[in-house]
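Model it.
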Amino acid sequence: MSTQAAESLPVSPSTVKSEHSCSARAAQQRYAIRAGIEATLSQNVRTCGLRRTRYRGLARTHVQHVLTAAACNLTRVADWIAEPTTTPRRSTRFHALRTTTA
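Modeled.
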Protein backbone atom coordinates (compact mmCIF):
# COMPACT_ATOMS: atom_id res chain seq x y z
CA MET A 1 0.00 0.00 0.00
CA SER A 2 1.38 3.37 -0.93
CA THR A 3 1.60 6.24 1.53
CA GLN A 4 -0.97 8.18 -0.48
CA ALA A 5 -3.48 5.31 -0.11
CA ALA A 6 -2.71 5.04 3.61
CA GLU A 7 -3.31 8.77 4.08
CA SER A 8 -6.69 8.57 2.42
CA LEU A 9 -8.03 5.98 4.86
CA PRO A 10 -10.92 7.32 6.99
CA VAL A 11 -9.51 5.85 10.24
CA SER A 12 -7.70 8.12 12.65
CA PRO A 13 -4.94 6.81 14.93
CA SER A 14 -7.04 7.55 18.02
CA THR A 15 -9.84 5.35 16.67
CA VAL A 16 -7.43 2.50 16.12
CA LYS A 17 -6.02 2.94 19.62
CA SER A 18 -9.48 2.89 21.26
CA GLU A 19 -10.51 -0.18 19.29
CA HIS A 20 -7.30 -1.88 20.39
CA SER A 21 -7.91 -1.02 24.05
CA CYS A 22 -11.48 -2.34 23.84
CA SER A 23 -10.31 -5.60 22.35
CA ALA A 24 -7.52 -5.79 24.93
CA ARG A 25 -10.05 -5.32 27.76
CA ALA A 26 -12.27 -8.02 26.30
CA ALA A 27 -9.32 -10.37 25.98
CA GLN A 28 -8.31 -9.63 29.56
CA GLN A 29 -11.83 -10.46 30.80
CA ARG A 30 -11.83 -13.71 28.81
CA TYR A 31 -8.43 -14.61 30.23
CA ALA A 32 -9.62 -13.91 33.79
CA ILE A 33 -12.43 -16.42 33.31
CA ARG A 34 -10.05 -18.94 31.80
CA ALA A 35 -7.54 -18.47 34.64
CA GLY A 36 -10.23 -19.32 37.20
CA ILE A 37 -11.20 -22.46 35.32
CA GLU A 38 -7.57 -23.48 34.90
CA ALA A 39 -6.99 -23.05 38.64
CA THR A 40 -9.96 -25.29 39.42
CA LEU A 41 -8.80 -27.96 37.01
CA SER A 42 -5.27 -27.77 38.39
CA GLN A 43 -6.57 -28.21 41.93
CA ASN A 44 -8.58 -31.26 40.89
CA VAL A 45 -5.63 -32.78 39.05
CA ARG A 46 -3.22 -32.24 41.94
CA THR A 47 -5.45 -33.20 44.87
CA CYS A 48 -7.91 -35.69 43.43
CA GLY A 49 -5.96 -37.41 40.67
CA LEU A 50 -8.23 -36.25 37.88
CA ARG A 51 -5.58 -36.74 35.22
CA ARG A 52 -6.34 -40.47 34.96
CA THR A 53 -9.71 -42.09 35.31
CA ARG A 54 -10.35 -45.18 37.39
CA TYR A 55 -13.12 -46.50 35.16
CA ARG A 56 -13.79 -47.43 31.56
CA GLY A 57 -16.70 -45.96 29.74
CA LEU A 58 -18.05 -42.47 29.38
CA ALA A 59 -20.87 -42.81 31.93
CA ARG A 60 -18.63 -44.04 34.76
CA THR A 61 -15.96 -41.48 33.94
CA HIS A 62 -18.60 -38.76 34.03
CA VAL A 63 -19.71 -39.92 37.48
CA GLN A 64 -16.11 -39.80 38.67
CA HIS A 65 -15.73 -36.22 37.39
CA VAL A 66 -18.99 -35.12 39.03
CA LEU A 67 -18.01 -36.66 42.37
CA THR A 68 -14.53 -35.13 42.13
CA ALA A 69 -16.05 -31.70 41.49
CA ALA A 70 -18.39 -32.17 44.47
CA ALA A 71 -15.43 -33.11 46.68
CA CYS A 72 -13.52 -30.05 45.48
CA ASN A 73 -16.49 -27.82 46.27
CA LEU A 74 -16.81 -29.34 49.74
CA THR A 75 -13.16 -28.69 50.52
CA ARG A 76 -13.51 -25.11 49.28
CA VAL A 77 -16.57 -24.55 51.48
CA ALA A 78 -14.76 -26.04 54.47
CA ASP A 79 -11.78 -23.75 53.85
CA TRP A 80 -14.10 -20.78 53.44
CA ILE A 81 -15.86 -21.51 56.75
CA ALA A 82 -12.63 -22.13 58.66
CA GLU A 83 -10.93 -18.96 57.42
CA PRO A 84 -11.64 -15.76 59.33
CA THR A 85 -13.59 -13.18 57.38
CA THR A 86 -11.31 -10.28 58.21
CA THR A 87 -7.62 -10.29 57.49
CA PRO A 88 -5.40 -9.67 60.48
CA ARG A 89 -3.91 -6.21 60.36
CA ARG A 90 -0.48 -5.34 61.59
CA SER A 91 -0.35 -2.99 64.53
CA THR A 92 0.66 0.58 63.90
CA ARG A 93 3.90 1.98 65.24
CA PHE A 94 1.94 4.10 67.71
CA HIS A 95 0.06 1.08 69.03
CA ALA A 96 3.29 -0.92 69.38
CA LEU A 97 4.95 1.98 71.23
CA ARG A 98 1.96 2.38 73.50
CA THR A 99 1.88 -1.32 74.44
CA THR A 100 5.62 -1.45 75.18
CA THR A 101 5.53 1.57 77.49
CA ALA A 102 2.37 0.59 79.33
